Fold this protein.
Amino acid sequence: MTNDVGGTTTVNGRFRVSVLSSSYDYETGKHYKVRLLDSNDVETVHAKATTGFTPDSYKQYMKVNPDLYYSALKAQKEFDPSLAYVSEFDVISEEK
């Protein structure tokens, strides 16, 4: 999943999700954008995907790479711990 400053965080566990969209890449297979359904799962993921960094943490790099600050600022605004991205190899279907 995308963490609070735009990086990637891996969160292990079993979560009930709703598939929002899917895509296919011939090299890596099928990928899904999902929403976590259980509020406790959202809290768990939120804790793991919150880095403790803020966009201000990246201001020191403005002269060298200003994109770091602006991408972290954008990521902070868009951060939604209920959204995740998974591959077909991460999914166990419980369809009825």
Notes: The chain has a mean pLDDT of 88. Strands lie at 17-25, 29-36, 83-87. The CA atoms of residues 42 and 82 lie 5 Å apart.
